[in-house]
Specification:
The protein is an alpha/beta fold. Helices cover 29% and strands 29% of the residues.
């Protein structure tokens, strides 16, 4: 039985024709297909240009396409792909969904949040330092981008979400648009579904999740002073990764 693989690529220029991948053209894909996955002749490969390809309006967004090929030959130094067809990918949300998350205490937790955010349709991921953030390891932007790219491939997304290292939380919220929605624990706020009902269906949504321990008193005061909309996820205090997943899941399903 033929297997199917998906890759976002940057080196391929002409997608509507046969493609040769080599040490100079998508070497990481060649390594995956030829060495790691041991792909065989007849297996299916789907290539997607990073960022998607515009092709006219579809449900409020530009159409994005993926390109389907069949492996003609595969070895450690190169892969020959035979062009099959061009398919419109309709797996993206029809509105922008940004997750702004304070850095957690462990890299593994950050990886989990990024992966799940991509699976749930987030279009932009912003990492900020909160007063209670305890990340002890430096952020490797290339590693973060790789995590997001692989999650987008697994989720059959049409695009790779942008990853932004946004600096200090206080600076970020000071410049943030009024549409930023803040998950606030231990507060008598409207639920997220109630808040979303009052937001126009096609307006981009930005959700802010605090670190372990929540927001400091100073951060809460700033959020209140700026008039940002806060919402509740229920009476129980959730782990930050749970709050991020629940918030994005609710928003993606309700819009």
């Amino acid at each position: 039985m033929a297997r199917s693989y998906r890759f976002f690529v940057t080196d391929v220029k002409d997608f509507e024709g046969n493609v040769t991948l080599s040490g100079n053209v998508e070497p990481e894909v060649v390594e995956q297909l030829g060495k790691v996955l041991r792909a065989k002749v007849g297996d299916e490969v789907v290539l997607l240009p990073v960022g998607g390809v515009d092709g006219g309006g579809v449900e409020g967004r530009a159409a994005r396409f993926e390109y389907v090929y069949e492996i003609a030959s595969a070895h450690k130094k190169g892969v020959e792909l035979t062009y099959v067809k061009k398919v419109e990918n309709q797996n993206e949300l029809n509105f922008g969904l940004e997750l702004v998350v304070c850095l957690p205490n462990k890299p593994d937790k950050l990886s989990l949040i990024l992966q799940k955010a991509v699976e749930l349709g987030a279009t932009r991921l912003v990492l900020v330092n909160g007063d209670f953030s305890q990340m002890k390891h430096g952020l490797r932007e290339d590693r973060l981008v790789k995590i997001v790219k692989e999650a987008a491939e697994q989720a059959e997304r049409a695009t790779v979400p942008e990853v932004v290292i946004g600096g200090d939380l206080r600076d970020f919220v000071g410049d943030a648009p009024g549409g930023l929605l803040v998950a606030m624990e231990r507060a008598d706020n409207k639920s997220l579904p109630e808040v979303l009902k009052s937001v126009d269906a096609h307006v981009p949504i930005s959700i802010l999740i605090g670190p372990e321990g929540g927001f400091s008193d100073e951060e809460k005061a700033l959020i209140e002073a700026l008039g940002l909309t806060c919402f509740s996820l229920g009476k129980r205090v959730l782990r930050m990764e749970t709050a991020a997943i629940v918030s994005l899941g609710m928003t993606a399903l309700m819009r």
